[in-house]
Amino acid sequence: MTKYVYDASSIIKALKMKRIDILAANYIQQLTIHEILNAFWKECCLLKIIPLNRTLEMIDIIMQIVNHMKMLNPINIEKDIIKTASELGITTYDASYIVLAQKNNLILVTEDKKLKSKASSLINVTNVEKILSSTN
Predict the structure, then answer these.
(1) Helix, coil or strand: residue 122
(2) First-residue to last-residue Cα distance in the chain
(3) How far, in Å, CA of 111 to CA of 129, rounded?
(4) How far is residue 54's CA from residue 96's CA, in Å, rounded to a whole number?
(5) Mean predicted lDDT score pLDDT of the chain
(6) Edge-to-edge, what's the strand order for the sheet holding 125-126?
(7) Residue 25 belongs to domain spanning
(8) CB 14 within 8 A of CB 22
(9) Crossing angle between the packed helical segments 92-104 and 78-88, to the nearest 10 degrees
(10) What is the share, in percent, of the chain residues with pLDDT greater than 70?
(11) For 16, which DSSP code?
(12) Any idea what the CATH number is for the domain that residue 68 is in?
């Protein structure tokens, strides 16, 4: 069975599409939670797109989802992360997803076109739409 590591952009997309079912039993890392919270903060507090009460509801949903996902730990792969970031010209945040996917034989799921483009030279990368089209 194919297993995935999801970045924040893909988790948020799945949530907005009401397709959180595709996330269960797959992988994230601790950073993903902070990135999701930051995205919600931006839409709520900076852009004023989502009211605070709805933001808090979505955070509750996300945390329930996270409880059904497996948490990856980037400890002891820091050098690989910095090397990958340096080689690809990306942040260490993005590189951590690539290295974790490599080390755990996972497919990276991202909606970030730049990350997808850079990561594709090293790992398999997909997005939520492609996963949904392959399961229907």
Answers:
(1) coil
(2) 16
(3) 9
(4) 30
(5) 95
(6) 70-72, 27-29, 4-6, 107-109, 125-126
(7) 4-130
(8) yes
(9) 120
(10) 99
(11) H
(12) 3.40.50.1010
Asked, for residue 91, whether it belongs to a domain, the answer is: yes
**Number of domains present in the structure of the chain:** 1
Q: What is the DSSP string of 70-105?
A: EEE--TT-HHHHHHHHHHHT--HHHHHHHHHHHHHT
- 135: in domain: no
Strands 107-109 and 4-6, by their bridges, are: parallel
Q: Please report the pLDDT score of residue 93 as a whole number.
A: 96
Q: What is the pLDDT at residue 136?
A: 63
For the segment 12-34, what is each residue's pLDDT rounded down to a tens digit?
999 989 999 999 999 999 999 99
Query: What is the pLDDT confidence band of residue 75, given thresholds at 50, 70 and 90?
Result: very high
Sign of CA dihedral 79, 81, 85, 88: positive
Burial class (CB in 10 A: 0-12, 13-18, 19+), 38: exposed
Q: What radius of gyration do the chain's Cα atoms show?
A: 15
Contacts of 136 (CB under 8 A, 6+ apart): none
